[in-house]
Structure formats: structure tokens, C-alpha cells
Design goal:
Blueprint: H1 3-21, H2 29-44, H3 49-73, H4 78-92, H5 95-110, H6 114-120, H7 134-181, H8 193-217, H9 221-231, H10 240-251, E1 255-261, E2 264-271, H11 281-325
Antiparallel strand pairs: 1-2
Helix pairs in contact: 1-4, 1-7, 1-11, 2-3, 2-7, 3-7, 4-7, 5-6, 5-7, 5-11, 7-8, 7-10, 7-11, 8-9, 8-10, 8-11, 9-10
């Protein structure tokens, strides 16, 4: 079986596994990676960029190496290769858990349980929940659903199509490192620089694909394109900007504004100022849009993987032909 078919079958099975079961409840590989990365940090941490570069290279490179070894160990068995791809996809994507957390928060808001919604919000994003009212929490959830659609699903599928299992686990490793050390706190301003920059690079294609698919799958394609073109560049994140802006336009809502992280207040630019304020019901709409984007992304990644596979096989044939002629 060719590598592109292995990815397509395995990724489909992994996405279905995520849809049915959600994240693994125990022994989650991403959690194990996080513990290992924390152990490495305790040894390497210094308040300068060189130490952070070493930390990023060791952790991300180690994840890619393990993925490569695992893929190599089963490459002669098509069934085992598909199974490995399925398990890797199920482990690294998080669309169902993202939707579940969003629904739980929205349900609490619908029931008038603001305290319960505030208590659950840290499961989804790092904002200070006590500073948010109902509208602020609903907006935070929609923004997190948008951004994590790219980070938790689409980006992984893109790199899986390009590089198989090593691409899947490598992308998740980079994204996890950014979440752990990539934020601009005093401790990680220098040490987390490499992880944050690498995450920007790795997330670039997935973020643009997510934005494109939100335009196609949303209810207002023109509004999504307009918001993307006008407002994405105003966002401090080069990847969250296109995703959140396109979701805002597709849903017809305003995102951005004042945020609070760890006691630090940020004034984010408004995305899609032509839209209305976010309502609790928009959480469900954002989740449905994210689901459509995820499956469209799978279709694009599977097709892209087939193209990559054909190009690679063609190059190998040309190399063999050239050696035979020589």
C-alpha cells in the first residue's frame, strides 16, 4: 500500500476514533510528552535563548525521531502502518474534546450558572475567568474554538499528509511546547522564544487552510474574506489572526477586544467590526463550523498526500531509471 493511502485510511480511522471516543482518558501520549518536556526544562532552563533552542530541538526532534522509528518498524505491513497512523491521529487531534468543553461552558451559561462557566473556562483557554461576564466568556469560547480548530486538528492533518506519522507527532510536539513555554511571561520570554517561533512556522500552512475552509464552510463567505483581509494582520499572532478573523466573518460576530491573561491585560484589535456581539448560541454555531472545517481539511490533506506520494514515486522512478542508464 502506498504511503498516501496509508495516511488517508489511517487518518480517517483516527478522526472517527476521536469523534466516537474523544481524547484517550489515561496514558495520553501528549500528556506524557508534556511531562518529559517539563523534565528536560528542569535540567536545561536558563534565562537566555540558546537554552531554549536546545530545549526545543531536543524535545521536538526527539518526538519526530520516535515517530520515524515507529513508522519504520511497521513499514512492511500495510495493516500495521494504517493502525499506527490511526493511533497517532487519534492521539494528536482534539476536535471532540474541544467541542465537548465548549458545549459544557455554553450549557452552564444557558442555565444561568456563570460561576460554573468560569470554573470550566480554564479547561479551554488561559484567560482569567473571574474578569469575564457571560458575553465575555462566550466570546472567549468562540475564539478558542476557532484557534484550536487549526492547532488541534487542521495543522496536524497538514503535516501528516506531508510527512506521515513523524509529521503528525512533530506538529503536536511543537504546538505543545509553545503552549508550555512559548508565552511571554518573565520566565519564558527568552527561554520560550525558539518554541514560539517554531510553532509560528509549523502552524502557518494549517492556519491558512483553516481560514480558507472557514470561508467555504461558513454562512457568509464574503464576510469571512472581508474580515480575513481587513483584520487578520492586526492580531498579534500571525496564525491565530487569519483563523479568528475568518471565523468571525463566517459567523457574523465580532471577536477580539480586551483580554486578561494571568493578571496581564491585553487590548486586542476587533476582528470583523461589522459583526454583532457574540451570544451564547454562537458557541454551538462555532462548533458546527469547526466540525465542517475539520472534515474538509481531512479531504484536502488526503488529496494533498496523494499528490506528494505521486511526486515522490515519480522522483524515485526517475532516479532508478537514471542509474540504470548510467
Amino acid at each position: 500500500m502506498s504511503a498516501d493511502r496509508t495516511f488517508a485510511y489511517g487518518a480517517a480511522a483516527g478522526l472517527l476514533g476521536d469523534l466516537v471516543f474523544g481524547d484517550p482518558r489515561r496514558g495520553h501520549p501528549v500528556a506524557a510528552f508534556g511531562r518529559a518536556a517539563s523534565a528536560v526544562e528542569r535540567v536545561l532552563w536558563r534565562d537566555h535563548k540558546a537554552a531554549g533552542v536546545l530545549h526545543t530541538a531536543f524535545c521536538a526532534g526527539g518526538a519526530v525521531a520516535l515517530g520515524t522509528l515507529a513508522a519504520g518498524a511497521v513499514r512492511r505491513s500495510p495493516a500495521a502502518s494504517v493502525a499506527l497512523t490511526a493511533v497517532a491521529t487519534w492521539s494528536v487531534v482534539g476536535g471532540t474534546s474541544l467541542a465537548r468543553e465548549a458545549w459544557l461552558i455554553a450549557s452552564a451559561l444557558d442555565a444561568g450558572d456563570l460561576a460554573g462557566a468560569r470554573e470550566r473556562l480554564p479547561h479551554l483557554c488561559g484567560r482569567d475567568p473571574q474578569a469575564l461576564d457571560e458575553a465575555g466568556i462566550a466570546r472567549a469560547v468562540v475564539e478558542s474554538v476557532a484557534e484550536n480548530t487549526s492547532d488541534a486538528v487542521v495543522g496536524a492533518l497538514v503535516w501528516g499528509a506531508v510527512a506521515g506519522v513523524p509529521g503528525l507527532v512533530g506538529f503536536r510536539a511543537v504546538n505543545t511546547l509553545d503552549a508550555m513555554v512559548g508565552h511571554k511571561s518573565p520566565r519564558y520570554l527568552n527561554y520560550g522564544w525558539a518554541s514560539a517561533r517554531l510553532d509560528d512556522v509549523a502552524g502557518w500552512p494549517g492556519a491558512r487552510l483553516t481560514a480558507c475552509l472557514a470561508v467555504l464552510a461558513g454562512g457568509d463567505p464574503r464576510g469571512a474574506v472581508r474580515a480575513w483581509r481587513q483584520d487578520a494582520g492586526k492580531h498579534p499572532s500571525p496564525n491565530a489572526g487569519p483563523v479568528e478573523a475568518s471565523f468571525a466573518g463566517a459567523l457574523g460576530v465580532r471577536l477580539g477586544g480586551v483580554l486578561s491573561y494571568g493578571g496581564r491585560v491585553e487590548h486586542r484589535p476587533v476582528l470583523n467590526d461589522a459583526g454583532r456581539a457574540v451570544h451564547v448560541a454562537d458557541v454551538e454555531r462555532a462548533v458546527r463550523l469547526a466540525r465542517r472545517v475539520n472534515w474538509l481539511a481531512f479531504a484536502v490533506a488526503a488529496a494533498g498526500g496523494a499528490v506528494v506520494g505521486r511526486v515522490s514515486r515519480g522522483g524515485l522512478r526517475r532516479m532508478r531509471t537514471g542509474r540504470g542508464m548510467a
